[in-house]
Amino acid sequence: xxxxxxxxxxxxxxxxxxxxxxxxxxxxxGKPPPPRPRMTDDExxxxxxxxxxxxxxxxxxxxxxxxxxxxxxxxxxxDASTSEAWASACNELIHRVCxxxxxxxxxxxxLPQSARVSPKNCIPExxxxxxxxxxxxxxxxxxxxxxxxxxxxxxxxxxYPVYEKMVEHDIPAMIHVSAAxxxxxxxxxxxxxxxxxxxFNQLMMSSVFKDFxxxxxxxxxxxxxxxxxxxxxxxxxxDAKLGLLTDLVLRNIFFDTCVYHLPGQQLLAKVIPxxxxxxxxxMIGAVRGIDPETGHHYxxxxxxxxxxxxSTEDKAKIFEANAxxxxxxxxxxxxxQSARGV
Length: 342
Ligand SMILES: [Zn+2]
Prior knowledge:
Elements: E1 3-9, H1 14-28, H2 41-49, H3 52-59, E2 63-68, H4 80-100, E3 105-107, E4 109-110, H5 123-131, E5 138-140, H6 160-169, E6 173-175, H7 187-204, H8 208-211, E7 217-219, H9 230-239, H10 245-249, E8 253-256, H11 262-271, E9 277-278, E10 290-291, E11 296-297, H12 301-307, H13 312-326, H14 330-340
Helix pairs in contact: 1-4, 5-6
Bound molecules: zinc ion.
Zinc ion binds near residues 8 and 70.
């Protein structure tokens, strides 16, 4: 089985994002939001059948761990109440996709975060998504201000209510920023990769893994700058008298394979142990074009993993076994949803 641990619903029916625009406009005008739009099962089916499902089949992957569109989370917009309503709408839609295509998609929640609002307000949505929807993870935004970094670092006890819930439910968090509202950053270029790198650096210097021995984080987009600069982070850990970086982070931190060229993928697999690498493509997402050097889509990451000089057993870890281990509830959900799907 090939499990893609990083996919977003970037193709949702138009009225879904349309409502978000109206919601934020209403909030600015001090008015209540309009009623949520109707979306039929057929409309949802169409967006998936011609989109993510089609690409899964073309590329030979089986299951996507699926979450709301990351750039659309927009935690810097509105306030805590608009974030709660929007996260609720987005997660419900993911649940509908997973119900319509139970063999192909399993859900991960976006959180109703807001800049400078305690993430305690995310707890009810996490409980709801795990208990009612069967979601197996969360996306945690380390910078809800959208590129201005106004919240405490992930090392701060500020985030501990979320960490406690992650451990309680046995769900990992993918560290994933949303759109940048700071013009210095390009959302899916510098802001995403910066978010990954910052999140890793904050966690490695922290007491989080001492306080939560079993907690798990996935650093997406191949770990941002981390694998390429592994020597720098090893040296920083050593200078800070934190010990060996591998001992410090590799029980708790994992990297996905959203690296869009073979040399990058080779470096990831050379630097990071195979037990800490999870297959992912982030399709249909950040980079949609075809690489003229290969003739294939940049985000067709399975091709790169296939070409790595690793044993079949190691590739099976990257494609399947590691995801089942990191997402503690995944195997049970696969069984449950497979039994439902025809
Ligand atoms: Zn993503």
